[in-house]
Amino acid sequence: MSEYCLEPASVLDEYKQQFNGAELRELVDVGKVSIAIPLKGEEEVEKVLADHFGIAIPTVGKSVLSEDKMVRVIRLGNDQLFVLLFDQQSDPRSFLANKFGNVAYLTDQSDSWVGLEIRGTKARQALERICMVDLHPEVFLEDHIARTLMEHLGVLIIRNGDDSFVLMSASSSAKSFLHAIITSIRNVV
Amino acid sequence: MIIEHPLLGPRDMAEFVYLGDAALINRPDWQDPDAANKYYEYQYLRDNPAGLHRELWYHEQGDRSWLVVTRDTLTHEITNVELARDVAVEEGRSR
Amino acid sequence: MTQYNRIDGGLIDRSRVLNFSFNGKQMQAHPGDTLASALLANGQKLVGRSFKYHRPRGIFSAGSEEPNAMVQLRSGAYLEPNTKATVVELFEGLSATSQNHRGSLEFDLMAVNDFLAPFLSTGFYYKTFMWPKKFWEKLYEPIIRTSAGLGKLSLQEDPDCYDKGFLHCDLLVIGGGPAGISAALSAGRSGAQVILADEDFIIGGRLNSEVYEIDQMAGSDWVLTAKAELETMDNVRILARTTIYGAYDHGIFGALERCNDHLASTNNKPRQILWRIYSKRSILTAGSTERSIAFGNNDRPGVMLAGSVRTYVNRFGVAPGKQVAIFTNNDDGWRTATDMAAKGVSISAVIDSREIDPRAKISGAGLFLGASVVDTTGRKGIKSITLSNGQTIECDCLAVSGGWNPNVHLSGHQRGRPEWREDIATFVPGKQLPVGMACAGAANGNLTLNSALHDGYDIAGRQMHDLGFEVAKPLTVDAEDESCEITPFWHVKESRKRAWLDLQNDVTVKDIKQSNLEGFRSVEHLKRYTTLGMATDQGKTANILALAIMAECTGKTIPQTGTTIYRPPYTPVPMGAMAGRSRGKDFRPFRLTPSHQWAEQHGAVFVETGNWLRAQWYPRRGETTWRQSVDREVEQTRKSVGICDVTTLGKIDIQGRDAAEFLNKVYVNGFAKLAVGKTRYGLMLREDGIAYDDGTTARLGEHHFVMTTTTANAVLVFRRLEFARQCLWPDLDVHLISITDGWAQYAVAGPNSRGLIRKIADKEYDLSNEAFPFMACKEISICGGTLARLFRISFSGELAYEIAVPTRFGGSLMEILMEAGKEFDVVAYGTEALGVMRIEKGHAAGNELIGQTTALNLGLDRMVSSKKDCIGKVLSQRDALNEEDANRLVGFRPVDRSHQLVAGAHFISKGNQPVMLNDEGWMTSVCFSPTLGHSIGLGFIKRGDQRKGEIVRAVNPIQNSEIEVEIVSPHFVDPEGERLRV
Fold first, then answer.
1. Do A60 and B9 touch (CB under 8 A)?
2. pTM of this structure
């Protein structure tokens, strides 16, 4: 054993807060991996997703949650997938590399992004103050995703329930991001 | 402005970064005997039309695709939006 | 004085009393009142002074078009100047003061301007302050500054908060009068997403001001019924107190919602919200605004718009006068007379400029047909009027109607021009409208109630059809079309006295004539020369009147004369709302490095680099200047080992079968043959041949590289690489992911760096110089199995490493490095020490890569591969960038070692005059080198590479100093690079 031991720390100290009509919490222990689809390699990636996760590759702007709800595959762009692993893989990249082999290029993004979940009846109203994407329940359906801008920060927003959204943004600016979301909630509740 | 993204639908201009004339896709061959002149034209000589203009926009806060947007510079009407990669392939920018 | 003008009726809650004050005087009113109606109820006629002549002014209108009744609200830091009393919703405890006077409102010392009026004619500024030139700064400007402006700012920070937001809809209804409400009903019943916005605090528009009936009920009751229906619809959102102030591209609108302005306290909620509304369709149902008629002394307190007088009578239960005269050129003006008479207010006269049959019988009122008002009396409140027949009539209120102008403003925000309609003598929206917009009701020239109701409903129905919604069943509503005949009548030619057009900027009929005489023929010129329509009300009651008079002067028709261009905002938008949350520390987001908390705990001084906060240096006890800290950090690093957080460098994961080929195309030097497990320095050019960015790129696998960029260019380089990948070489299989935030990265530099790394790296890794030489890279594990990336690269010139771990371990790694480094007396160093060491080593950085320098200038020209293409290659070979005497990056040291070099100084050869002609280059970076014990610098100088040993002068004309410097190698420390390789 080494003399020294590295202690991991969550970006926002596992923030969790209940507001009147909205709940906000940091999503911790979520593995995040980028999957780049090689040129002309989409079919093989589709096959891996189907075989290993039972997931049909989503179209750009949508995501799919695996049946066991442990894996969400997000299509960010034509050649760009983003995978969330909810089963706390110690090394999410290796976990996926075992399945994808040479079929796709993987990059562990677990530490690049901070994840927040906002849910509750006031969630949409709060997001209205910072999100330019139309989040109307009949427009932005469950499993829809969008990358956009909130208070100058790039954000990936995922609708993961009736009144529930996952918001992911760069980890270095996580504190500013959290502050922006909290302000939005406080301004409406 | 709203740009009708070919994959993502209508998106606010705030998510994009503007570059300029889509002619920038047509980067000359460095081994062309007239390369110096062609690069000079490529780099410095652009049309500035009052009317339809094909231009490059980058969806930086989106799917990070470069787009070729055809926009009327007088009215801001956007008549066509294509993925720049498709345009580049179409225009023969293959190896 | 207790609500001495209050009469029966109105939409106010008489069961409750609100106390407020005006200029310190306590008054009372009721919920539902505006400040203006409350002031009128309390008999306060005089409410302000005009901008230029300081003429006494009273309330003129009942809406956002108000030019006169500008007041300051609240006090202290909450003070808000230039607020229209006519739109301020009254609340308990409101305090308001008048503005633009010296001394009291009643005895304004600046009123002397009124008597100086002959000297303050139009264009006064342009003519007077031209000469003598030297008077400008000392005399004219101070005078103008003290006289300028209306209200006063608090000069304190705004204690309120503001917010922004985004809304989406199928149909945006702009204005909640009869046409707007019926449009919202139509679209709402179709199931579309509808936003109905109105600037007023209750919707209904003129229906709340008139006595019209719809479906046998009062108009205002019909509004409540309709509103109740709309409120049952989930798809309809009513935004009262919300002004749509601008129509932008592609159906985007700007809106200002005044959420809490009507409350005594905002309770820390946003006071106002600036909305961006995305609409598929919009319908402009903004109604119309009444215009005045110009006649002598038509600006006295008590002279009001006739429709507004009706608003005060019907909606607020206030009679603006006890004895009212009416002057009109249209049938609508007569309604003011009949409505007031019905409430028992005495009407002294109705004067109609038309030779018509009387439109009503009004008991006790003299009827003067084909007549006009020539002059008025009463300095602080109108007392009497003189008619064109010479007769004088007493009155304390004169209601004037010159006809109604559709509120076309937003229809013209995309450069559309309104069109003249002769039959109603006014402009209506033109054909070129903002995308998706239609106009209905009075805003579209349908000035009567029944037509407005149907117009709004039917046009919204057509829009629904366009959008694919099922059109709602036709509107069944029982309402009348009141008569609105008009014969244009703009100004009373017999008047000898000044006749006002723009009340807020004090522009008169004479000013228009004079500017015409002086040659200002275009309306745009007229506007700017006279300042007509340029005040905070933007001339809503004045512009059309002035146009008509200008047309008269030039002999053109009104449509030939045209209007000025309409631009946002429709009504003023506070700067606070524009700023939203972007104030103070929330101005922009901060990015924090993984060692931020550690650095804070250890007293670091931080510097903003882009959005990042980086430790600049770490002062220790006893150090009184930054130099002491920085010198110590440099010395200790060069002597033993130092740690610097370099996470901020851009890091890009590059993967793909063609990744190596791609790098070859974006860097001037070759990367295809870089071995796996090796790192290489790379230089990028812009396509024009100028140096752009540099950094190291490591090859982690056959198809896997990690590139670093400078902190400042991280985003830009990524963007350019995506451009190259998608647009220039779309057939390359290469993929880019930004991993800047994913890895915490520390430079570990100094002769003991290997010893320190050895202590934390897991034992199985051989880190000897042979096994892990300079420029090696490897994925290893540290501290018992944690993944890390180790690069043997050096910016300081010492034996050095950069070690990266997933960000979650970054804070912990910093502590471990400092703990494990204790035996070496490890030091944390900041960006200043980093900068000193790179200057000592002669590395180019931001000061040298300034967008004007080439690889040749930087001494990196040999890196440019001749065997391959790369971005910027061809143009970098231009003759002009490769001349014999091109600038070269070299080092400089002062001849007198005690001298301190100055960055930005220019180099002049000995014996030459320090003028541009003799300029040979400039100093880019300087520092005190603790290693050498004197000041050193880097800079560009012509043929510098061939001039080592030469003495030149570093001239600083700004501070009038010059220092003799010697040209030396830029590598002050370890020029052979031996330390890197041990």
1. no
2. 0.95
